[in-house]
Amino acid sequence: MHAGHAGHAGHAGRADRQRLDLRRHQETPILLRLVMAMWRNALAAQFCAGLALGLTVSFLFFGNNHIISSRAGIRLTRNYDTDEISHRGDVRKMAMHSGNDEWSEADHEAWDRHSDGQSDNSFLINDHHMHEGDDDSAARELAKKVKVMIWVMTSPSTLHDRAKAVRDTWGQRAEQLLFFSSAHNKTFPTIGLNVSEGREHLTAKTMLGFRYLYDNHFDEADWFMKVDDDTYVIMENLRYFLSEENPKDPVYFGHHFGLIAAQGYYSGGGGYVLSKEALRRFGQKGQDPMLCKQDGGAEDAEFGKCMERLGVKTVNTTDTLGRSRFHCFDPETHIMGGYPPWYFKYDANGGKKGLHSISDYAITFHYIYPSKMKRLEFYIYHMAAYGVKRGFQHLNNPPKDRVPIKPIYRDPLKKT
Ligand SMILES: *[C@@H]1O[C@H](CO)[C@@H](O)[C@H](O)[C@H]1NC(C)=O
Ligand SMILES: *[C@@H]1O[C@H](CO)[C@@H](O)[C@H](O)[C@H]1NC(C)=O
Ligand SMILES: *[C@@H]1O[C@H](CO)[C@@H](O)[C@H](O)[C@H]1NC(C)=O
């Protein structure tokens, strides 16, 4: 294969992912939605028949969807989202009207549409309260020790919903958080990079983003992470993972794809974290177009090739039980499967799925649109099961115990 093809393959990957996103969350035709709803109901039956755990899981990740009974779903959502819902007269009236009756497909449909895309600006979770017996001192201790600066790639058109949801949810727990766009906005605030919007310029956005960090913030952190504005980050788990890594190692971490570069590269949407040494190398040599493509191609793949040429290594970021921590899809997709075909070719760990393939200390998920961001916030940080106290697990694979990534991957660029 030649160079053109490699670039194309990477690009197709990201483009497909984008299409999946659109199809799922915004423009799903009604018929397809009905089929999806029926599919989910079938899954619900399996879950109930099988495991007691099933209910918890479906509740955890599907919230007010169809898997739990519609009534329970309404009650929960009402209690929780009182403010958010109060001015949505139509949906509320519909829910009231249905009373104790079963919902029709059309009701489900309307509710699904309501909970999917339409995030509003009234969301205030402000959930910094602690419950009796809670103790977050270990997490706070790590936040003092592990300095990670995160930049969120956003754009003027997604600033008001996606970037705002990041800022209002997990962004609250990030100590150093920057938003990079193609336009300055003093009030948000965002930093405007000298770049045009559009998929074909994502590579430039990433290159300029990390350049900005190197030029302006290099001394302020040990780790530097890039995420999209539909990435959800569990900050405590990120810091736990980084706490046993060495920022002086030329390494970077993320959701590992085993293609394009000999050592593979990381998915852009799953987020990737550079060590200080990796950013130093990027800052010193990353402007050389022979080493790093400055624009065009698929952003994550190009950045991966750049890292490889700078001697920055990919790492197996799974936990001690081989479970994934960075994710390029949402939790539902990683639990249920239903991956697009390209994923099995790309994922370095063979496209595993299911509860047991995901680390208890998962770090990122992708395709988390604003309303889902708020849901995750609720399930991870607000809700708890009475009488269940959870302890600490040791799930890190520190560098000394780790098998290095073998550069065995097919590299279409390399002439043999
Ligand atoms: C800048 O951000 C503020 C606050 O999010 C927003 O109200 C305003 O419309 C933004 N300005 C532009 C030009 O996008
Ligand atoms: C912005 O980018 C363009 C094209 O890459 C370049 O010609 C221009 O000098 C840049 N402007 C600044 C302020 O860096
Ligand atoms: C990462 O480690 C797990 C076990 O800890 C192993 O199953 C998996 O194959 C490794 N992945 C790669 C790409 O080496």
UniProtKB/TrEMBL annotation:
Region (Disordered): 1-20, 397-416
Residues that span the membrane, as ranges: 42-62
Main location: membrane
Subcellular compartments: Membrane
Recorded metabolic or biological pathway in which this protein acts: Protein modification; protein glycosylation
Gene3D superfamilies: 3.90.550.50
A molecular function (GO) term: manganese ion binding
GO cellular component: membrane
EC number: 2.4.1.122
Biased composition (Basic and acidic residues): 399-416
Domain (Fringe-like glycosyltransferase) ranges: 146-317
Topology class, membrane: Single-pass type II membrane protein
Classification via InterPro entries: C1GALT1/C1GALT1_chp1, Fringe-like_glycosylTrfase
Class of enzymatic activity (EC top level): transferase
Needed co-factor(s): Mn(2+)
Keyword entries, A-Z: Disulfide bond, Glycoprotein, Glycosyltransferase, Manganese, Membrane, Metal-binding, Nucleotide-binding, Signal-anchor, Transferase, Transmembrane, Transmembrane helix
Quaternary structure and partners: Homodimer; disulfide-linked.
Family according to the record: Belongs to the glycosyltransferase 31 family. Beta3-Gal-T subfamily.
Function according to Swiss-Prot or TrEMBL: Glycosyltransferase that generates the core 1 O-glycan Gal-beta1-3GalNAc-alpha1-Ser/Thr (T antigen), which is a precursor for many extended O-glycans in glycoproteins.
Protein name: Glycoprotein-N-acetylgalactosamine 3-beta-galactosyltransferase 1
